[in-house]
Amino acid sequence: MGSYFDGGQTGSFAGPNGDAGRSPRRPSASFMNRQTSSFADFLTSHSPGLLPGRVQPGVESAPGAQVIKDLPHGTTIVAATCDGGVVLAGDRRATAGSMIAKRDVEKVFRSDEYSAIGYAGTGSVGIEIIRLFQVELEHYEKMEGRSLSLEGKANRLAWMVRGNLGAAMQGLIMVPLFVGYDEESGHGRIFSYDVAGGPYEEQRFFSIGSGSIFARGSLKKLYVDDMPVGDAVLACVQALYDAADDDSATGGPDLTRHIFPMIATVSSDGYRRLSDAESQEIAEQVVQSRMSQPDGPLAPLRNG
Amino acid sequence: MPFYVSPAQQMRDKAEYARQGIARGRSCVTLQYAGGILMMAPNPSSALHKISEIYDRIAFAAVGRYNEYENLRKAGVTVADITGYQFDRHDVTARGIANYYAQTLGTIFTESNKPFEVEIVVAEVGEHPDGDQIYRITFDGSVTDEPGFVAFGGEADRVSAVLKERYSEGLSLAGAFGAALAALSASGNSASGNSASGNGERTEIVGSQLEVAILDRTRDHRTFRRIRAARLEELIAEARAAESRAAEAGAAEAGPADSATASDTPEASEAPQAPDTPTASQAPKTSKAPETSTDSAPPTGPDPSRTDRGSGTNGGDSESPL
Fold first, then answer.
1. In chain A, how many domains are there?
2. Which of A28, A43, A268 sits opposite B104 (nearest CB)?
3. What is the pTM of this model?
4. Distance of alpha carbon B174 from alpha carbon B214, whole angstroms
5. Among residues A164, A217, A269, B13, which is most buried (max CB within 10 A)?
């Protein structure tokens, strides 16, 4: 079973000339007369080999399948809307089986000026799809002279996740968490996905990855509607700490090596990644508070 | 149709056709300054652009037939994005894009009945001024390296002569702006579309008739910025003020008898002529969705002083930098 992206797919992804738009005498002409402003669509017809998710069918049962099982993955990514925007934060660990494959993975990325994306799943597949997504958004903006709407971006990402389904079914899973600042409403918005696509718009906060269950439970008690961005960041870091506390595939703050959760905010000022110094300050604050209360801030049992 | 036309004659005819088409339109100028590269062209339309971003440090400017160069622009953006995606962002160069245009335009010139009536400039801003590159590609696919500055399209010779006079290395943005404005004003095909008026004064170009953009070498990631609205008016006013100061200084040297002419500066009010209908090659029949940006930011750009790293490389100035 191949993915949509396999070369040789006919149907809506074929170029307008049927033969992938290539003319034998004028190879450079395939770039001219573009019908669509989508980069990923163009790749599908022009160079499908560049698309993510190209996996031969039957890989999982092949002798080398252990290779797939040993690819690094595991994560917690949390997102929370706040006053004037949205926060996206992710841990830094990648595991391969029982080993820690990498301590300082970056799983939170800027997708464009007003949006950010994090992923859970296989590291290399995640990076590839996110890279494609970044180029897709920028390409559309340059071609059309305006950026996509936030819903448009969320939909394009869903298409890419869907295209990876074939590979996902063979173990190369990638599930993103997408956040953006909606310039029209002035609010942050969160979109989640499953392995077959989406998007699902989430309210208030959300989390994905192996530690997401713990992070979500933590945020449930800490989150306040329209909280100021500083508080939202702190809540997210607390949630990541709780996820790391209970999920071996999620890494907590590494104070010895100065490796802290990656935190980004998206607001009317655009995407902003907190500097290492800022992340350090917040992480140290959280760790310090855990010294006296290891399970984190207590939520009142009775309201009022 | 004649029974036989010699290839040489065919090519000459095509070249003549293309040259005439390009000369009919308006000129465009591109020049280096201390902080980057400035591109300027008369353009009454705010939605249809002659100057555009190709990639992080690469910009595109064109004259001639709009639908033809718009097609080339999109192809250039595609080539750039494919290269950057396939390899890395640093592997996209103006030279590569210019070569692509040379190949494409050359093929079109040779193989199609009608050549493209376009002339294109691809510019790249370096970390330092000696890394800047400006390439000009003509309708038949010839590429030339144009160090420092270039004027093309319309009355290119006239505009180029003024530009050459006014250009020097290490200009400030205001200085480069003034030079470009002066050069474009020298053309009979200025934004107002009329020839220079009989009393010898240059026709005045106003902000709404200008398209201006820069490649700002100090920016991270995407260096292309359009200069619009308030910032554009500021620079125009600055340029005009500098002109009149220079004119006064020149008149003062010549002696008091000439002081009368000193007041006859380019700023002397001359209501801009009603813009001529755009040439056929640039008729804006449809308008694109309006860009969402403010002032000098790119379509989705937030405050240009911010970068992704949180601690902006620029100061707090939210306008395009000097």
1. 1
2. A28
3. 0.81
4. 12
5. A164
